[in-house]
Amino acid sequence: METIRLTINNISVDVEKGATILDAAKLAGVCIPTLCHHEDLCVAGNCRVCVVEQKGVRALLAACATPAANGMRIYTNSQKVREARKTIIELLLSEHAGDCTSCYKSGNCELQNLAREYLAEGNTFIDVSSKTPVDISSPSIVKDDSKCIHCLRCVRTCAELQGVSALWSTHRGNKTKVETFLGKPMCDIVCTNCGQCVNRCPTGALIERNYIQEVWRAIDDAEKHVVVQTAPAVRVGLGEALGMEPGGVVTGKMVAALKRLGFDSVLDTDFTADLTIMEEGTELLNRLKTALEGGKPAAFPMMTSCSPGWIKFIEHKYPSLLGNLSTCKSPQQMFGTLAKTYYAKKQNIDPSKIVSVSIMPCTAKKYEADRPEMRSSGYKDVDYVLTTRELAHMIRQAGITFEELPEEKFDRIMGDSTGAAVIFGATGGVMEAALRTAYELVTGREVPFANLNIEPVRGMNGVRSASLKIENVREEWKFLEGAELKVAVAHGLANADRLMKEAENGVSPYHFIEIMACPGGCIGGGGQPIPTSPEIRKKRAGAIYAADESLPIRKSHENPEIIMIYKDFLGKPLGRTSHELLHTHYTARSEGRRE
Questions:
Q1: Which of these is catalytic: 53, 280, 390, 561?
Q2: For a disulfide at 235, which of 135, 251, 287, 349, Cβ 3.0-4.6 Å?
Q3: What CATH number is associated with residue 506?
Q4: End of a domain among 207, 225, 246?
């Protein structure tokens, strides 16, 4: 390994060849401010906030885009650098509408933080911020061009991480603008609603559309019974959103906070994650049976359907593969329809009086809840979706000191779950949970991996694969004897695209594929705490797996409440009732189709 030696503020540092000045500064313990730079994205060098001075060189250098070289003597805090940064920040402020006190991102805005640190003045230059109306057409994302500073993080995120390119940089100079295709509203473009652009926007130009006030009004309405569900990844993100270190599991405190906010029943999306495994696992086994017994050709590879951003992606880009999707609704939507059928019946509550709220790590879940297919209960199955960040806002509004809360448990009826459900929050988790159950149902034995941990489908590689030999099966599953089940996992839609090209061309070697739209899966969802980075997502994933191992039951089919709901209400997986309530279909979409 070839190394480079340079000095940062007279501190000698060695870095690998190819590292940037910014990388070297981090190793030296020196913080250089950035705006356009992000660890998940390619180098851009757009904003110039990271300028530094090199001894003997007249022009300042962009630290994020300049490779380190032997003998460099770099200064990050000289008078020349400070003055240049202040001027650059003031130029950026001239492009940015200055209503900070009422901005949703206030307090978590990178531009605001830098302006405060460098004592930048907002009226030094003429205001050239956009005067176009705020786009609130999408149920998931709000686009406010007046707050855009043209760092192009959103454009690079959509192109590099997601392979969608719903946002573009157009025009030049003071007319530069981040636009949609033909300037259409966000609801009319090929946007997957994933919110990854929101997670990387340094200002309030892109934010989630929030429904906090609507939820407060429902809670305050004595005529309404407000049920709330919480997704697996929320319990490893909420503490972070409230100032705690990344990687903590705060399930008990989260439940306590929700009860103090006034929700009538605090339940768990993990319950319907377990239910999803029962339905999806049975669906996979039925497809395998059909294929191996020579019946009507089944659509392979079968693909998961839990991620609404992924569903929107395949509807637009690979409509020919819609038949490969599992027909299962996501756990959120299964929960929503059961809240207004099974739960309402159990609790003797008029379903028209139930308001179903979900707390999700995902902005696309807001869009999913609005889909016309998601009304099989006879009502809108999920009324409002809040992100992890929105729940943190509500907790702060209510004056709750989160860290001092006691540990409390979910309410009964749709509140019990297993470790298999918890790992839905991390990429590979749905696949791992499905294999734990499907293998045991077929063979009567646990999956042949240490402590149920199926390591080949874990990790942060963009695409991962595994195979599992099925031997010594039960009598009713004899058709699977000796079969080798091949599976794959992808997270981030650009990675999903690679697997879809194989499937579209008829050369996919897999039987079952899990796709999550967001990097890291739900732990890196568009509604999770900001900032996000590979290291933060790794800590959240570690917390998810720790939560799994801490639970007494780690296989979905062993959840007593799952056993009970099939006995009392659903009958059997893929039965008539579960088909009507828990399964759906998806729609081929063109670029111009209104959502």
A1: 280
A2: 251
A3: 3.40.950.10
A4: 207
Distance CA 260, CA 407 (A): 12
Going by C-alpha positions, the residue among 58, 72, 60, 59 that lies closest to residue 24 is 72
Hey, what amino acid is at 426?
A
| Catalytic residue (one of 16, 83, 117, 373) | 373
Examine the residue annotation and report whether 306 is marked as an active-site residue of this protein: yes
CB contact at 8 A, 239 and 253: yes
Catalytic residue list contains 83? no
Q: Which helix (H) or strand (E) holds 357?
A: strand 354-360
Check residue 205 and report its DSSP letter.
Answer: S
State which amino acid sits at residue 556.
S
Q: Is residue 591 one of the residues assigned to a domain?
A: no
Model confidence over 245-258: pLDDT tens digits? 999 999 999 999 99
- Catalytic-role residue among 307, 326, 556, 578: 326
| Number of Cα atoms under 13 Å in the Cβ half of residue 488 | 22
* Omega within 30 of 0 (cis) for the link into 519: no
Q: Which residue has the tokens 């966000």?
A: 186
Catalytic residue among 179, 208, 368, 390: 368
Query: How high is the pLDDT of residue 573?
Result: 97
What does the pLDDT read at residue 296? 64
280 and 243 co-located in one domain: no
169: annotated active-site residue: no
pLDDT score, position 420 = 98
Same domain, 315 and 203: no
- Distance of alpha carbon 50 from alpha carbon 44, whole angstroms: 12
The confidence score (pLDDT) of residue 593 equals 41
pTM reported for the whole predicted model = 0.95
Contact between residue 304 and residue 430 where contact means Cβ atoms under 8 Å apart: yes
179 is known as an active-site residue:
no
Catalytic annotation on 240?
A: no
Quote the tokens at residue 237. 């993100």
> In degrees to the nearest 10, what's the CA dihedral of 100, 189, 492, 439?
120
State residue 290's pLDDT score: 85
Helix axes 308-317, 493-504, angle to 10 degrees: 40
Contacts of 60 (CB under 8 A, 6+ apart): 51, 52, 53, 80, 81, 84
- Distance, in Å, from the CA atom of 369 to the CA atom of 330, rounded to the nearest integer, reads 10
142: three-class secondary structure by DSSP: strand
Residue type, 481: E
157 residue type, one letter: T
Predicted local confidence at residue 595, as pLDDT: 41
Residue ranges of the chain with per-residue pLDDT less than 50: 592-595
Look at residue 295 in the predicted model and tell me its pLDDT. Answer: 63
Which residue among the candidates 105, 147, 329, 365 is catalytic per the annotation? 365
Q: Which of 306, 328, 362, 518 is catalytic?
A: 306
Count of other CB atoms within 10 angstroms of residue 497 = 17
Active site residue 283: yes
Q: Which residue is catalytic, options 522, 555, 556, 578?
A: 522
Residue 107 counted as domain residue: yes
**Does the annotation mark 326 as catalytic?**
yes
Query: Are 440 and 356 contained in the same domain?
Result: no
Active site (annotated) includes residue 368:
yes
Question: Which one-letter DSSP state was computed for residue 216?
Answer: H
Q: Please provide the size of the chain in residues.
A: 595
> What's the CA gap between 315 and 332, in Å, rounded?
20
In angstroms, what CA-CA distances link 328 with 150, 282, 411, 527, 583? Answer: 40, 11, 25, 23, 4
